[in-house]
């Protein structure tokens, strides 16, 4: 053993947030950080109802809306945990809750 911590923490120890472009990539919502940055620049990412720059920090409890150009309706989610690093798709889904896909048809 090389002395490094072998734990697999899903959340950050620090109470702060994480850049929204990094977060979108680590949660497997975009294929790369640069694509997440582009989505922010093009106004396809909203945080708590506001357009954001890629450097804006997202925190637990924030609501994120992502308009993917390949889908008709945007994805809306609530951030439950801030990951400490790149996650597998299965681990990533534990960090957020899907609120809806942005259409009126999603209402109960």
Characterise the protein shown here.
- This protein is of the alpha+beta class and 108 residues long.
- The chain has a single domain (18-46, 55-102), classed as RNA-binding S4 domain (Structural Genomics Hypothetical 15.5 Kd Protein In mrcA-pckA Intergenic Region, Chain A).
- The chain is 19% helix and 21% strand.
- It has 3 helices and 7 strands.
- The chain has helices at residues 20-26, 33-41, 89-93; strands spanning 18-19, 45-47, 50-51, 57-58, 63-66, 75-79, 96-100.
- It has a 5-stranded antiparallel β-sheet. A two-stranded antiparallel ribbon has the order 1-4.
- β2 and β3 form a beta hairpin.
- α1 (20-26) crosses α2.
Q: Residue ranges: pLDDT <50 for 5 or more in a row?
A: 1-9, 104-108
CATH class: Alpha Beta
Distance between the termini: 53 Å
Let me know the largest β-sheet. Answer: 5 strands, antiparallel
**Silhouette:** globular
Mean pLDDT: 83
* H/E topology pattern: EHHEEEEEHE
CATH topology: Structural Genomics Hypothetical 15.5 Kd Protein In mrcA-pckA Intergenic Region, Chain A
Question: How many independent structural domains?
Answer: 1
Radius of gyration: 14 Å
Question: What structural class is derived from the secondary structure elements?
Answer: alpha+beta
Say which CATH homologous superfamily is assigned.
RNA-binding S4 domain
| Annotated CATH architecture | Roll
Binned, the helix content reads 10-25%
Kindly estimate the percentage of residues that lie in beta strands according to DSSP: 15-25%
């Amino acid at each position: 053993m090389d002395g490094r911590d072998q734990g697999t923490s899903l959340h950050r120890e620090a109470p702060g947030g994480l850049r929204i472009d990094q977060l979108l990539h680590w949660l497997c919502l975009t294929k790369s950080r640069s694509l997440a940055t582009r989505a922010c620049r093009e106004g396809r990412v909203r945080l708590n109802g506001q357009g954001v720059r890629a450097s804006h920090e997202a925190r637990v409890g924030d609501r994120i809306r992502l308009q993917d150009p390949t889908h008709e309706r945007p994805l809306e989610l609530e951030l439950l945990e801030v990951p400490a690093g790149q996650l597998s798709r299965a681990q990533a889904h534990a960090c957020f809750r899907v609120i809806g896909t942005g259409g009126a048809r999603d209402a109960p």
